[in-house]
Amino acid sequence: CGPCVSMKPKFAKLSDRFGNAANFYAVDADARPVSSKHGVSSMPTFVFFKDGAELDRFSGADEAKLETLIE
């Protein structure tokens, strides 16, 4: 997926920057049942959890939105 490829280095950069405050996981949605468990139907999708509860999510290649939600 083109947007997934474009977000991969941005995701890595944000993971390096905020890795002490949060855990970052990349999942191959085609190979992992976790994507269907969490209702991921488009890619890339970013899902935010705290203490096991979903806080927010969005789909798309929007680095600024991703960074805002992480902060």
From TrEMBL:
It comes from the Eukaryota. Signal peptide: none annotated. Residues 1-70 form the Thioredoxin domain. Gene3D superfamilies: Glutaredoxin. SUPFAM superfamilies: Thioredoxin-like. Keywords: Disulfide bond. InterPro entries: Thioredoxin-like_sf, Thioredoxin_domain. The keyword Mitochondrion does not apply. The keyword Amino-acid biosynthesis does not apply. This is Thioredoxin domain-containing protein. The lineage of its organism: Eukaryota, Sar, Stramenopiles, Ochrophyta, Pelagophyceae.
